[in-house]
Amino acid sequence: MANAIRFYETGGPEVLRYEQVAVGEPGPGQVRLRHAAVGLNYADTYFRNGTYPIPMPNGLGVEAAGVVEAVGEGVTNVDVGDRVTYTGFINTLGAYSTERLIPAAPLIRLPDSISCETAAAMTMRGLTSAYLMRRIHAFKPGDSILLHAAAGGVGLIVAQWAKLLGLTVIGTVSSGAKAELARAHGCDFTIDYSREDVATRVRALTGGAGVDVVFDSVGKNTFLGSLDSLKRRGLMVCVGTASGPIDGFNPQLLAMKGSLYLTRPALADYIADPAEKEALAGELFDHVASGRIKIEVNQKYELQDAAQAHRDLESRQTTGSSVFII
Ligand SMILES: NC(=O)c1ccc[n+]([C@@H]2O[C@H](COP(=O)([O-])OP(=O)(O)OC[C@H]3O[C@@H](n4cnc5c(N)ncnc54)[C@H](OP(=O)(O)O)[C@@H]3O)[C@@H](O)[C@H]2O)c1
């Protein structure tokens, strides 16, 4: 038997239950994986509260790292004993568990230089940072970005990666301590968006021009300020909606604010091609193994404390990445 978090109805963190589950043997194309560490991502809260609808009851979590214990028929990309990591969407749901069956396709073999704990802290957030930095826009040194939630899991990785590309990084944060952390990870400037008007500060910091690209993972509360922070023909990247979804958007607004571009990308579409996933993972692993990008695992929990972990994440208590240690 394995232990797992399951939920029977959508709602607040209290719906999460810690249970014993039978795992069984892998079928064709599947592996049985023993987890060493499991990633806690903001997307997990969207599944839990019903923002991303899924059938009930269900497991939770889309990212973990561990060791392959058994492989089913036709599996060729991993072997028994391999250390692997994975992330995904509905295809990997059920990561909040000590052991599980999973399709082999999302699994990525880990180099010796990357621990399972680091992998669980960065497979989702690091691959997201990789496509945001390497696929969304053809950045040149000297370009400027506005990065919301700069002290968060995705934020700290993007900030470091952006500096490797020679970008000017303006990060938003909600406290002085988070501002310090964001600056220590590459932000040239920080704005406390709980107290300051973001677009006004961005205009002041960029000589009135605005930034080339905004990475907005906050959504509802920051959307309009983000558009107002962009240069003419700048790019607005809606990365996520930590403060709630953006409703009632009229595309005419993009014309009125300077012929802006807008995209709402999802990691799944940037790692669907195995060769592209391998290339992005290779770049990420290389930066992390060499120390150019540091993965900050600032919160560690036991699996049975999943509800508390969700409360901490949603009440903005966390910085960097959070993981469950199995
Ligand atoms: N599109 C994709 O492919 C993709 C992939 C992975 C993640 N994401 C998105 O990226 C974002 C970051 O994910 P993460 O797991 O690294 O989380 P995170 O950034 O570590 O945590 C969320 C942060 O958002 C900020 N925030 C602002 N307003 C908030 C509010 N009303 N409620 C809660 N938090 C608020 C908080 O930072 P402050 O206190 O500093 O404001 C908080 O720490 C999420 O929106 C997630 O959905 C998108």
Can you walk through the features of this model?
The protein is of the alpha/beta class and 326 residues long. The chain is 28% helix and 27% strand. Helix 2 packs across helix 3 and helix 2 packs across helix 8. Helix 4 links the parallel strand 10 and strand 11. It has 9 helices and 16 strands. The strands form 3 sheets. Strands 3, 5, 6, 7, 8, 15 and 16 form a 7-stranded mixed beta sheet that branches. A 6-stranded parallel beta sheet has the order 11-10-9-12-13-14, sandwiched between helices. The site of NADP nicotinamide-adenine-dinucleotide phosphate (NAP) has 29 residues, from helix 1, helix 2, helix 3 and helix 9. NADP nicotinamide-adenine-dinucleotide phosphate binds next to helix 1, helix 2, helix 3 and helix 9.
Low-confidence stretches: none
Radius of gyration: 20 Å
Shape: globular
> What assembly state would you assign to the polypeptide chains in this entry?
single chain
SSE order, one letter for each helix or strand: EEEHEEEEEHEHEHEHEHEHEHEHE
Tally of DSSP β-strands: 16
**Range of helix content:** 25-40%
> How many helical stretches?
9
What is the beta-strand fraction? 25-35%
Q: Report mean pLDDT, rounded to a whole number.
A: 97
Main sheet characteristics? 7 strands, mixed
Summarize the structure.
The chain is an alpha/beta fold and 326 residues long.
Topology of helices and strands:
Layout: E1 2-7, E2 17-21, E3 30-40, H1 42-49, E4 58-59, E5 63-71, E6 83-87, E7 99-103, E8 108-109, H2 116-134, E9 144-147, H3 153-164, E10 168-173, H4 176-184, E11 189-192, H5 198-205, E12 211-216, H6 223-227, E13 230-238, H7 252-256, E14 261-263, H8 274-289, E15 297-301, H9 306-314, E16 321-325
Parallel strand pairs: 9-10, 9-12, 10-11, 12-13, 13-14, 15-16
Antiparallel strand pairs: 1-2, 1-4, 3-5, 3-7, 3-16, 5-6, 6-8
Helix pairs in contact: 2-3, 2-8
GO molecular function: mRNA 3'-UTR AU-rich region binding; NADPH binding; quinone reductase (NADPH) activity; zinc ion binding
Catalytic activity: 2 a quinone + NADPH + H(+) = 2 a 1,4-benzosemiquinone + NADP(+)
Protein name: NADPH:quinone reductase
